Amino acid sequence: MTEGMYPLRPVFNLDARVELPTCMYSLPVIQVSKSLTSDGGPCPDSVLKALEARQEAILTKLGHLRDEVSKYRKSLGLATTFSSDTMPQEVKTDVVIRCSPSKPAFSLPGIVTMLSNHMTVFTSVHCHSCVPNLPGHLNNFLPTPAGERADANVKVTLIWKEVGNDCELMVSPISQSVIKGEVNVIRYFARLFPSVFTYENDRTATAVDNLLDSVTSLLWAQPKDRQPILRPLAVNLGKSSFLCGESFGIADLALFSALKQIGLERDLQPEFRRWFTLVSAKLMGVKGRRKSRASSSRKSFGNRRPSERRQSERRKSERRTSERRPSDRKNSEKAPNSKKEKSPKKEMTDKPAIVKEKSPKKDVKREASPKKALKTPGKENSPPKTVTIANHMGKDELFNYFNENGIDYDNVDHPAVYTVEEMMPYLKHVTGAITKNLFLKDKKKNLYLLAAKYDRDIKLNDIAKTIGAKELRFADESVMFDKLGVRQGCVTAYALINDKEKSVKFVVDKELVDGSHDAVNFHPLVNTATTRISSKDFNKFLYLTRHQVIQF
């Protein structure tokens, strides 16, 4: 200390020796007040040897620790050494993915399929208690595992839970944060398995990131803002088979899932349609549309286009009218001949005979008037001139939609019917629940489509109390056509496919969706046929339409 300051003696004597019991571990003194040497010279050899021995002991312990870490990494299937040029090719991992049933990550089946080509993958699907009614097809959302869980390199557990629009991935809740968003989940698998998914080790990594960001924007964009996002992607697909050239990548996987989530796979441009078929074939092993069971409808009108069907119906109507016209001509030719044989007196007195000369022409006009009615047999669903048919699907488009989504159906054609009583004689050999459908509205102008078994007693007051509506009554036919694209007598649950705005709530008899019946029968948007699908496929159809379903 400098002179002039008050000297303070040490509070503790650091050199004091404390007598300790011999049963305790003896620790040498680490800090002393006195220097090691009084003259400031070099340290004694004994001190240096002690430090050297201590250093060797520490290095030996570190070596043992390194060996233990290497053994543990090897037991997990991880590489024991890393370098900037080499990455681990085989990784064992166990992931848990939480996903909302309303926003399924359609890329997960593709990821599992691609990983299964290189290693053993075990999958399991579970449903959280917060999801009361899980659509049947989501139980088998992931491919069936080929082996046991203990023998698998990759274990994927999918839990259906309401987590919002973004799915979540978790490996370890202690050492890792939750990975949110389907695009980020795809990135995680691509980084973990670079030999399966081409991503960061490719020269096009920046382009892939930009495409993944576009896919994320597409998922959150409003319908009116989707086309500007899809337009650059269509340009890429016009130049190559996939988004990043001629090889399939994670950007194609993400876009494939996004299009299925927002329901755009049915309204694709030619470039997207060709690309969508290629991706479907790679991920699901199918070529285009899946074929379903043969039916009478697809052998007759099922494979025709709407324009061809209209032409065939016009020809039939012209034949019918032409068959009637010769008889009218014969009657008109007989009438003048009979008048010539009459005497002049009868011609003067029987003035009504002149009226009879014109009667055949009137009859021809009267019979010609049904010509318009004959042009529209089986077209009870035709819209007025102010509404375009392109806004709504028809019978043929509905069957194509079933084929594209793997829904098997059986169709029975019959004459036009307007009540269940008229329809029953034609469905004697049909299995499954036969239904009746009503289009309703409440006091607040909310719209409802009700479907129930044909023999169930329906009381609108009781239904209104069950679903929480006020004053249920029948809605106008014009509103029904604008929303569902069907006319009176053609009301059907399949018409939900035309309600793209999701403005109609579907009220359904619980026996039609809880598996009480193996199949259900509805009109295919026209009342000249009845189409049967399984109860499982009916639940799948309701899930694909994204409508609010209320059971009673």
What does this structure look like?
- With 552 residues, the chain is α/β, with parallel strands linked by helices.
- It contains 17 helices and 13 strands.
- The chain has helices spanning 45-75, 107-116, 182-192, 205-220, 226-239, 250-261, 270-284, 296-300, 306-340, 344-349, 352-368, 370-374, 395-404, 420-423, 460-467, 477-484, 535-545; strands spanning 93-99, 121-127, 154-160, 168-170, 179-180, 410-413, 433-441, 447-453, 473-474, 504-508, 519-522, 529-534, 549-551.
- The strands form two sheets. Strands 6, 7, 8, 9, 10, 11, 12 and 13 form an eight-stranded mixed β-sheet that branches. A five-stranded mixed β-sheet has the order 2-3-1-4-5, covered by helices on one side.
- Strand 4 (168-170) and strand 5 (179-180) form a beta hairpin.
- Helix 9 packs antiparallel against helix 11 (352-368).
- It is elongated.
- The N and C termini lie far apart (92 Å).
Short note summarizing the structure:
This protein has 552 residues and is an alpha/beta fold. Helix content is 39%, strand content 12%. The protein contains 17 helices and 13 strands.
- How far from one another are the termini? 92 Å
Largest sheet: 8 strands, mixed
Overall mean pLDDT score? 77
Rg from Cα: 40 Å
Features:
8-stranded mixed β-sheet, alpha/beta, 552 residues, single chain, 5-stranded mixed β-sheet
